[in-house]
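Can't paste images in this forum, so I'm doing it all in text. The chain is below; anyone willing to post the predicted structure tokens underneath?
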Amino acid sequence: MSLYSHPGAGWSVRHWRRDDYPQIEVIFRECLAAFPWRGSARDEVIRLRQSLSANIAFVAEERNAGVVGFLTLEQGKAYVPHVFVDRDWRFCGVGSGLLHVARNFVGRPLQLDVDIQNEAAIEAYTALGWKEQAKVGRGSREQVRLVGP
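Text version of the structure:
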């Protein structure tokens, strides 16, 4: 069942299923390659698997391309540990659509942390109306906590 769709771009958002995992991991690993400061991809994949098993998750999917993005959500905290979009599907509203579904699901503003080095993501969230709440972490793991509109 679709929770949100973008008729112009042809993708829709739904709850994730276990059979989505291979495509989710491919997207995640490709995105991690752009973040060398994150350290071991193995450790990050373990955290992703834990998040998927313990939390709510949504995927954006296009009929021909399959899964093109995903988001994990800690419902009680309205916190988003992961939101990643396939490189070929960026600037198509996929990230915004996933965040829209998550916001509607919890019924209040979301929070997420972004690596300080990920300037493009911080810029994108700011353009969407997200506000900086605090700095978190240290060293190579320094992040900024953002709160959604």
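The chain has four helices and eight strands. The chain has one domain: 4-108.
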